[in-house]
Structure to design on (198 residues):
């Protein structure tokens, strides 16, 4: 649950039922420390990413299957090797690191003018392990680049591009958000040796 003040690092000291409290448990402090201001900036950047990316504003649930006539799923899960997650990988008790790609060209919705809604493809990498894990960025087409939007292990994340097919150093207990433009119409699928359904 997200409540007012979370973005200001207001914890209510762990109390989840403060409706009758009129004290420091519920009062919001507007004078923020440097660390709290940095966290607020992070929350604002996450809101900006959500607002700017159509894949985070879907009106329908993901199908989790190939869309008719498309070479890729609307949502795809990946192992650190860059390969698509298998049933065996999902059922293993040790899986602590995985990624999910949301295809920006397969939103399958229209706007108020009847135009198809499209946007960037988003790749979320999550590592619950305490050590760094190299994560091979999946490739959908030759020459694809992923642009880093956020990395929770790097407080002052700078925008940078990373080629698909190469490993990203995913730090322990962190989440990374990357984006990539969908392939142009008629773009060839990934070359042999690259994950063709990324």
């Amino acid at each position: 649950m997200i409540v007012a003040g979370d973005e200001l690092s207001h914890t209510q000291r762990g109390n989840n039922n403060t409706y009758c409290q009129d004290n420091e448990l519920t009062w919001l402090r507007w004078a923020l420390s440097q660390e709290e201001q940095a966290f607020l900036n992070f929350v604002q950047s996450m809101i900006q990413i959500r607002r700017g990316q159509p894949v985070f504003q879907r009106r329908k649930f993901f199908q989790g299957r190939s869309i008719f006539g498309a070479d890729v799923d609307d949502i795809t899960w990946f192992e650190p090797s860059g390969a698509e997650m298998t049933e065996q990988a999902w059922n293993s008790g040790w899986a602590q690191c995985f990624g999910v790609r949301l295809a920006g060209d397969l939103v399958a919705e229209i706007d108020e003018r009847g135009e198809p809604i499209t946007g960037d493809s988003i790749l979320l990498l999550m590592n619950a392990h305490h050590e760094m894990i190299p994560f091979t960025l999946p490739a959908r087409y030759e020459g694809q680049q992923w642009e880093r939007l956020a990395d929770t292990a790097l407080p002052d994340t700078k925008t940078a591009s990373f080629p698909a097919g190469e490993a990203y150093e995913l730090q322990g207990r962190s989440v990374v958000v990357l984006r990539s433009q969908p392939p142009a119409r008629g773009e060839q699928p990934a070359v042999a040796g690259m994950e063709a359904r990324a």
